[in-house]
Design a protein that fits this description.
heterodimer; A: 120 residues; mainly beta; seven-stranded mixed sheet; four-stranded antiparallel sheet; 11 strands; 0% helix; 48% strand; B: 107 residues
Chain lengths: 120, 107
Amino acid sequence: QVQLVESGGGVVQPGRSLRLSCAASGFSFSTYGMHWVRQAPGKGLEWVALISFDGSNTYYADSVRGRFTISRDISKNTLFLQMSSLRPEDTAVYYCAKPPRGLPDAFDIWGQGTMVTVSS
Amino acid sequence: DIQMTQSPSSLSASVGDRVTMTCRASQSISTYLNWYHHKPGNAPKLLIYGASILQTGVPSRFSGGGSGTDFTLTISSLQPEDFATYYCQQSYSSPLAFGGGTTVEIK
């Protein structure tokens, strides 16, 4: 079945970097744009980034632009989020999400999430 | 950037009640509006897209309406599994944005 599995979360000091991964299976990964969405403790959902199906276009939330980079390895069916210059306000559960066919900016399949804690 | 505002932030209701929540966009988004159901510890679930189209497998007690800037999500008869937080999300333009959520609690 369609599945997304995130990994790479953990505790990191402010200013440091971390890379998240999302392993995709059960669908044609190379034909879908993919997203990252996060949820800070006690807060709502926040869209983070989008990468086009072929990786040629990327889009970011203002809060992470210039610090985070979304990428993908189609040969490994894996999505990445490289996070740099991390701040305490980046503390959140990070989800990768797949859109439904024909609705590139909605999210119908989500991973279980990976927790990132930015703290000294 | 488009801002999404949901109201109320929380509501208390009983099993079998009809509940309605609203979502307002800071500018017109036509019907590029999606609704999600989210329980702590679980992944969010897409309920409605295009403002009023039920995602496959979603019970018919859920319905959505609206266009432009004002939208509603209605649950016709609350079931125990419906006690959760509901988010609207605009897919009209980047950056994509969610509302702050409406939490449906047991009265």
